[in-house]
Amino acid sequence: MNINDALVKYAKILEKINDDYKVSYIEAQTIIMHVLNINKIKLITDALRELTQEEINNIEELIERRLNYEPISYIINKKEFYGFNFYVDNNVLIPRPETEELIDLVLDYTKDKNNISICDIGGGSGNIAITLKKIFLEQNKNIDITTIEISQSAFGVIKKNAISILGDEKSINIINTDALTFTPETRFDIIVSNAPYVPLRDKDSLQKDLDFEPQNSLYSGYDGLDFYKSFLSVIKKYLKDNGAFFFEIGYDQGEALIDICDSLNIKNVLVKKDLSGKDRFLVCDDIN
User: Fold this and answer.
1) Is 288 a residue whose pLDDT tops 70?
2) Which residues contact 104 (CB under 8 A, 6 or more apart)?
3) From CA 124, how far away is CA 128, in angstroms rounded?
4) So what's the pLDDT on residue 179?
5) Model confidence over 185-199: pLDDT tens digits?
6) Which of 24, 41, 38, 32 is nearest to 6 (CA)?
7) Cα(267)–Cα(261) distance, rounded to whole angstroms?
8) How, if at all, do strands 279-284 and 269-273 pair?
9) Which of 192, 195, 208, 203 has its CA nearest to residue 129?
10) What is the percent of the chain where pLDDT is above 70?
11) Which of 66, 90, 106, 126 could form a disulfide with 130 if both were Cys (CB 3.0 to 4.6 A apart)?
């Protein structure tokens, strides 16, 4: 069996879970490129190369994992985010395209700012903190980045990605603690977070792939609001006067979160839509 034969064969097999040949073909490509350690150009130019039995066995092992609904990103331990390749495993949430828009909101807010501090709450793979730091370094901006992550395993993933993408884990401040009980030594100019916000009431109706992701990073109580309710009640110990925050939220949570902010006397809060037109971000550009 050559590479091209393998692509066709495994794409058809993956249709069992995707119901879409195009998606299945892309996943088959990704798995084969990963096993053979080649890029897409090599995949095309070597299409008629015969695979060894060992290579076939390795490919089929990963295909079986995918047929069990394990996400491709965990199978190959990689996910591209904002143009950077992040290491991911099942200790961290897989970065989503919507969160790239969260990066854009912060970049737009900081375009005329320097010598400020940003804290990322719930670091996960480190995709938000590391991406922001990488871009600020490229812009020659001196912006201090801290990320807080409760999971010891995820903490290790952040360090791994900081070394890989930034060249030094000390380029950002990585703190392994519970953000809800932690009190920072100094307050920050900006808080950014893609905290857990998926409602537990929706769990049974969501795609099976999500079962592989860390549940505490996805779900936050029956209505998905538990974490933000708790964090907003303590946010003033994190945020400087006139500070700003940028949170990713569920598409139907904006109104409830605005009400929570009103009850806590947090002003200047609005909901912004993502590129698909859904409410996705809770933004405050001046907490007072």
Assistant:
1) no
2) none
3) 9
4) 97
5) 999 999 999 999 999
6) 32
7) 7
8) antiparallel
9) 192
10) 99
11) 126
